[in-house]
Structures are given as structure tokens and as C-alpha cells.
Amino acid sequence: MSELIAFLEPDRAILDRRPAIIADLAGLLPDSCLITDERELVPFDTDAFVSYRRMPLAVVLPETTAQVAAVLKYCNENSIPVIPRGAGTSLSGGAIPQEDAIVIGVSKLNRILEVDFSNRAAVVQAGVTNISISQAVDADGFFYAPDPSSQLACTIGGNIGMNSGGAHCLKYGVTTNNLLGVKMVMFDGSVVEIGGKALDAAGYDLLGLICGSEGQLGIVTEATVRLIAKPEGARPVLFGFESSVAAGACVTDIIGAGIIPVAIEFMDKPAIEICEAFAQAGYPMDVEALLIVEVEGSDAEMDAMLERIIEIARRHGVKTIRESQSATEAALIWKGRKSAFGATGRIADYICMDGTVPLGQLSHVLEKTSEIIDRYGLRVANVFHAGDGNMHPLILFDANDPDESMKAEMAGNDILKLCVDAGGCLTGEHGVGIEKRDLMRHQYSDADLAQQMRVRAAFDPKWILNPSKVFPLDGRNGSQPGNQSADDRTAA
Amino acid sequence: MQTNFTAEQLTDPGVAESEKILRKCVHCGFCTATCPTYVTLGNELDSPRGRIYLIKDMLENNRPADKQVVTHIDRCLSCLACMTTCPSGVNYMHLVDHARAHIEKTYKRPLMNRITRGLLAMVLPYPGRFRASLYAARIGRPFAPLFKALPGLKPMAAMLELAPSSVPAQSDVARPGAHPAQGQKRGRVAILTGCAQPVLKPGINEATVRLLNRIGVEVVVPEGEGCCGALVHHMGREHDALDAARNNVDAWTRAIDNGGLDAIIITASGCGTTIKDYGYMLREDPDYAAKAARVSELAKDITEYLAGIEMPAPVNGASMIVAYHSACSMQHGQKITTQPKALLKAAGFTVKDPPEGHLCCGSAGTYNIMQPEIARTLRDRKVRNIERTKPDLIATGNIGCMTQIAGGTDIPIIHTVELLDWVYGGEKPAGLPDIDRAKSAPLVAAE
């Protein structure tokens, strides 16, 4: 299949040195942490952006920060590209390797190191899954707020790389708002600590720069995250509408009225059907669009907020309103929503877009998205964080049909451009990765990109860290390994 | 997920089925999170997604299995936690079964591995041989530490350590025949005698028959019924597994034709998962497909069956704290999650759910023999989680888990049906502690 997205051409000199590189790596890590067999490398050739695949040169799964540092130092000295990998759940191809690269996976760094309730903080290794932080402190009445749908599997390291969000980020903010500090290995193997349990650190907000840098500024091995006390109660409520446009307008008005529930999630009819088939959550099946609005607090607080929301929903012709009556029911409602992407696999292959738009544009963008999808003769399921304007059209296609696969990618690009043109941006929480890399020029001018690349080069002068991602391959003048111009290494 | 099979490859029904399964996977990675071996080893190759990818690569390229693939497939417990987690509905069970059969056909295992696996397949499914081997194990036990030190012999050491110190006498319940209902008859069922369970714990089926008879259900043990085939099935010995399945389908079909059956009762959930899959396993056999599907339809775990029956008033007071250990074959394989706990609660027990209940205890058929190190790590983790609930006893519905967990804790572990039988007027199960929380309630409250 021809591919829309190019990778950097592998460096022949590195490929030729493969046996020597493997021998050197074997001196840096125990056998159980090093994968070099060709068969065993195959499962690391992609992440959840499964349309694109590249075999890595080797995979290392370090057990300590010191091992991460030793490998990075070695790779920098030998100008070998490095691909950081969490759980490999990226939807933008953030963890897809390349033939001349070494994957550094943090899956063995999976311990919670410290829980400090008096400072409302937890210190965890980078490979700890998002949900396991909340599980570890649940009995004590705390939780970690950002909750990407893949929270069961995705790692905190990957969350930091992509500045992940989630349904409940409407109220609590995304990863960057809940990250207090990191221990990070720099390109040359030096280990730095940034931030800590205090609310602010002296000097520049480097943590803000690290969070969302897609593994290009260093490899985080430990994180200190904010713990939040659980609310007294929480209640997801289902609002069914006769049209997506009505549901979208309702969201705009809820936020416009100054109401901030914990979450406002949107599902259109195809998404409702997909999620109901998996979770049997009792979503209304006779509506065109559904909002899951979660309120929290004391009963009185929840009732008061709900009353205002219901009033707004009525103005938009809400057809059904159902409050969850039990913790089990609430859990099912969220299980269905959070499994939406995977559950889509029951009916089709998909790619998931991540454009974010100003709330006032929600209905307009939904309508235009349908038009684009129709134009390509495809199907779409919309399920997204409506309160944040973070859209996730799932473009459905048949991966065994090369023509349709190509159309799906092209439709995706058109939708992302639409989001930018509507005053939004390419990505709300999934990151740029390779998926949106070549659209960055639609969002930024060359001067903007050059400035970002200068920041990147300050952290990683040889561009060894996740080099094929984020920035368009052309126009990276002189900042490549061995001072080779990026244009020379771009795949034809 | 994209697949690459030729039309010719897809003429093989096993490959065709695997292709359909692979097409459903979207590579989201959710399954890694609940996989016991991934959680333990932190390597995607030892996760469902990694294994799916290895299998896909092997099948697409028409390649014989090799050491790498076998290593990671062998480490799979077949606990099927991934299937509970998978939002896309990927049937990992049928995929890995196919891969195991492919391995068995195309890969020559190292000598000691072959011997151990051959021995297990020759002994475990046959109660007579198994009983004899347990006596032999008592003599061999002092050699366990010696075997442990030699890599190829670790499974032998594990076997010796798992063998019980005493072997119960053979039970009458295991012999073919009918056990009539008492009082008003409300049903007729067959019970799977099985292979290892009646040797290790004959009391389980004795309790089942007593309880069922007492509530008006006739229980028959059909002539000719034997091991369900799960043990050899999980070794990839497709031929042996299908023979075992056909044998049981025949035995139960005779019972159905001769008096009818409301259910085929299974008291070991590991067997239940396999028997419920007979319909699929024999789908390509025109003589058996329909009969096997009927058998699978009738197969019920004892708790599943009892959940549909109104139980009498309890006779014995069960005011104890029970940690309910849900076997993987129960919760993931058969999706039976609420019934056993509801029955225990209705019988008067206080039921606790241990944390990380979705993670396997490491028993997994012959896994604790073939992969003793990972099995022990999982067992210790399971025991820690169970002990956190401070139970008086542990209840579960699978003999494998009972043996495995008992090796790591002093808390008594008893089959759910033995507890139910006792509460509703049966014998007190061996090992049941003499505790009455109703009398010592103030003490509990103070804790």
C-alpha cells in the first residue's frame, strides 16, 4: 500500500552496524530487558495508529533510570535514533519506530513509589498505568484526575508525552495541570529532576514545556502527580437529542451559561450503537445524539446544577433524560464511553481524529464533518469530549481495502484542516505524532515551526529523540544527526 | 487490523477463523493491562496484543512455529482476562487454541519439555493413572529440591511439590449410575465426573450430588464419560482433545436420549469453559457438530444451575467471612461472576472480593507445572490480595485454583458447592473452620 505519511529514510550506516550495536546494548542491560530477535521485534512495529508500521533496530525495556540513561548516552554518542514507548496506545503514531531506531519502552518501570496524602501527591514510575494511580489511592478517598479513555492501559509516561486529557478534564484540566514534577533522562544520559511536590518551582516553567513534547525533549522515568480528593458523590446523566446539531448547541449553551460539570461527552447514533453493543449500559437507542453529563458534589449541589442543565437541554428539545441510579449503572455508562474506540473494532477498522474547536463552532464542524465523510463515501462515528470542544470523529473503513484506507486518511486530513479553519487546532490530547505532522503547516507558519524546532534542538541537538514525529520532514535545516539535512533523508 | 492471507490459506477453516478474529483487533492495547504475564514481566511479547501479533506474523507467513513464538505462547495462561477486557470482541481463546495446534504440528520441542508434556497428557486425564502417580509422588517428593536445581527438570519438581501428602479413597459418586431425587422431583441432570478432581477432592462431587438430590434433582453419571479434554486441548493436542470431546458428547447424548437432561453439571470451571466450547471445537465434524452444540448448550456450572433454583431455608449457620476467588475459567471463560457470590450471601456468608480479582492465581491447568516461576509469582500476589480481606476461609469453584492457592496460604480453601451443601443440611466440609462471627460480632465491629 502506498502511504501518505513518510518516515525518515533509515541511516544505512546504522543498519550496517546493527550487530555491533546489539552487542553494545547487551553490555548495558540484562538479557531479559533486550529484544533483538527479528520475530520478537514485530509486535513493536506500531502502536494504536496501526495503519503505519516500521520495524525497530532493537527494543530495550529498562528496569531502572540508570539503564535508561546508559542507553540514551550510548545512542547519543553513536547518533542512533531513539523511540520512547509507554504502553503503545498512541492514536497518532507517537510510538511507531523506524528501522534505524532503538525503542526504549518503560513497561517494566511499573511501580508506584510513594503516596503522600499530606502533600496530595504521588510519585510513580513512568510505566505505571494511568488508572492504577487512582486505584492505589481510591480507598483513601483520592484520585488522579486526567482520565484518557485508554486509562486502563496507557502509561503516565505516555500521558506526559502527549499531554493527555480525558472525559473529566473539563473540570480538572489535562495532564499538564496535574503534573507536579518529573525525573527525566536527557539526550546525553544525564538525569534531571524538574518540579516537585510544591505548587510552583523557581525559574521557568520547564515542566510545562516537557509535558506534551512527545518524547522529543527527554525520557521521563518518574513523575510526581497531583492527587485530588474524591467528590462526595458523582452522577452521570444521559441526555438524548433528535439531532447532533441540537446536542452540539446544547453543549455550547451549558458552557456559555458558566456551568462547568465534570464532563460533557457526546456520542452520535453510530457511536451509541457501538458502545451499547459492548457495554450494555442502557444508552437510549432511539435518539440521534447523546450527551453524558456528569455532575458531582453533595446531593444538593448535584441537583441544583442538574436543574440548570435540564432547563437548557429542554430549550434544545431534549428527548430523553436519564439519571444513573447506582454506582454500577454509572460505571457501565463510563465503561461504554471509554471503550468506544476499541468497540468500534466490532464493526470496522477506524482512525480517530482529535481536532479541537471553539465551542461555538461545534454544530458547524459536525455538519461539515458529515459532508466530508459523505464526499469520500465513508462512514463516521462521533464520540468526544464536547465540553472541551475536543472532537473525535472515528472514520470507519476496511483496512484490507487499500483504496478505502487511503480515502480514510485523506478524509481525516480534511477534517483536521476544517477544525483549524474553524479557529481550533489539530490535536486536543492525542498529540501530533506522525499522523498530523504534515498538517502542522496548516496550523503554524514556517517561522512558528522554526522557533519550536530551535527549542527542540536545545534539548536534543542531534535530533535523536523520536525524530520522525511532530515537525514536517522538510525544512529541518541542519538539525539532523550528523548535520545531514532532513531533505536528504526523507523517503521518496 | 489489516491482514495478509492468500485465498489459498483461507481455505483452511482454522486459518479462516483466525483471520476473522484478527480482523476484529484494532491494536488498542487495552488487553495488556489485565494480562497477568504482562503485569508480571512488563514485556509486550508476553501480553495478548504481543501474542496476537506473533501469531498473525506466523500464520500469515505460513511459517512453522519457532522457539521465540513458542516461548511467548507457552507463557500464556489462557486465563482469558483479555477477552473480558477487549472492547472489540476479539476471540483470543480460539486464536490461541489454533496457534497451539499449529505449534504442536510444526515445532519440535526440546527433549525434557516433550517428556514432561507427554507424561502430563498420559497421566492427568486418567483418574487411575493419576491416582497411582500421586502415590509415586509421595516417594519422589524428597527429590524435588534436586530437580529444581536443573532447568529441564523444574516442572518435575513443581509436580512433586503440588502433589498432596495424602490421597483420598475413591468415591462412589464417580461410578456410573443414577442418584435419585429426594421428595418432589424437579429435574434430571448429568454430572461431569472429570479426571483430576475426583482423585484430589472427591468430596466436591459428593457434596454436589447430595445437595442436588436433596433439592429434588436426579443426578446421573453416564457410562463412558471421561476427561473433558481441556488439559490436552491447552497443549495443542487437537486430535486428543477432539477425541475426548466426542467421547463425552456420545456419553451425554445417550443420557439425553435415555431419559432427557435438563443440564450437564460441571463443578470445575476449567472443564466448563471447554465443554461450553465443544460446539465450536467440533463445528467441522458433520457427525458431531449438532450434538456437540446441544451438549455445550446444556453445560452449566453448578452455581449457574443453582442460581435458577429456589433454595430451602439454611440448616447450618454460616456466619463466616468468605473471600470468593473467582477462577479465570469462571469469570473470563464462562462470564459467571455474580451467581456464586449471590448463592454464598444467600446462604449466610459474608462475601469479600479480593483486590485484583481479575488476575489469575497461576494454576491454569498444567501451567503451574510447566511455568513454575511465573505461576509462583502470581500465586503469591493472589494470596496477598486474598489475605488483605482477612477472611475465615476462601471459596472457589475450580480444583486447579484450590490446589494452587492452598500451596501459598494456611487459610482453608473450600469449593463453593461444599459450603452450600453444608449450609443446606449436608456434611461439614473438611477444613471448615469452627468460627461463628454472629457470636463474636462485637469483636468484628471493633476492628
From TrEMBL, chain A:
Residues 52-230 form the FAD-binding PCMH-type domain. The keyword Flavoprotein applies. Residues 470-492 are annotated as: Disordered. Keywords: FAD, Flavoprotein, Oxidoreductase. Its cofactor is FAD. Pfam families: FAD-oxidase_C, FAD_binding_4. The keyword DNA-binding does not apply. This is FAD-binding protein.
Automatic annotation (TrEMBL), chain B:
Pfam families: CCG (PF02754), Fer4_8 (PF13183). It is an enzyme of class 1 (oxidoreductase). It catalyses: glycolate + A = glyoxylate + AH2; (R)-lactate + A = pyruvate + AH2. Component of a complex that catalyzes the oxidation of glycolate to glyoxylate. Keywords: 4Fe-4S, Electron transport, Iron, Iron-sulfur, Metal-binding, Oxidoreductase, Repeat, Transport. Residues 16-44, 67-96 form the 4Fe-4S ferredoxin-type domain. The gene is glcF. Its cofactor is [4Fe-4S] cluster. Binds 2 [4Fe-4S] clusters. It comes from Hoeflea alexandrii. PROSITE patterns: 4FE4S_FER_1, 4FE4S_FER_2. The keyword Metal-binding applies. It comes from the Bacteria. GO terms for molecular function: glycolate dehydrogenase activity. This is Glycolate oxidase iron-sulfur subunit. InterPro entries: 4Fe4S_Fe-S-bd, 4Fe4S_Fe_S_CS, Cys_rich_dom, Glc_ox_4Fe-4S, Helical_ferredxn. Transmembrane segments: none annotated.
